[in-house]
Design brief:
Blueprint (H helix, E strand, L loop, with lengths): L3 E4 L14 E4 L2 E7 L14 H18 L7 E8 L5 H11 L6 E6 L9 E8 L1
Length: about 130
């Protein structure tokens, strides 16, 4: 695919597996799932679910910016939580990173996530 571009930035954590931070085809960008890793150190952020979600959305915002956009270009966001009791706190954090109209979204509870974290978020942008 000749119009496929890999998006990468040191302002977000490096991939911890065989995937890219994002792929852009035309004006659509698929952001890989982000967990609460601190760029550079690759350490997990300390703190409650709000601190973890803030790091996740900071990571996503950095990748969106590297792709030439922002999280306000999101058309779909998928959130995975290990505990749906964190739903309200994650909503608050998400709302602080986005403006209305908000993107479509799914939020599901999962049994486990990489590195034992409580949250992973992925997004699709149209720039």
């Amino acid at each position: 695919m000749s119009n496929r571009a890999v998006i990468s930035t040191p302002d977000a954590p490096a991939a911890i597996g065989p995937y890219s931070q994002a792929i852009k085809v035309g004006n659509t960008v698929w952001l890989s799932g982000q967990i609460p890793l601190v760029p550079g150190s690759m350490e997990l952020v300390k703190g409650d679910i709000s601190a973890q979600a803030t790091q996740v959305f900071n990571n996503l915002a950095a990748v969106a910016e590297a792709a030439g956009g922002s999280l306000n270009h999101a058309v779909k966001i998928n959130i995975s939580l290990t505990n749906l009791d964190h739903f309200a706190a994650v909503n608050e954090v998400m709302a602080s990173f986005l403006s209305e109209p908000y993107p479509a979204r799914a939020c599901v509870q999962v049994a486990a996530l990489p590195r034992g974290v409580d949250i992973e978020v992925e997004a699709i942008l149209v720039i």
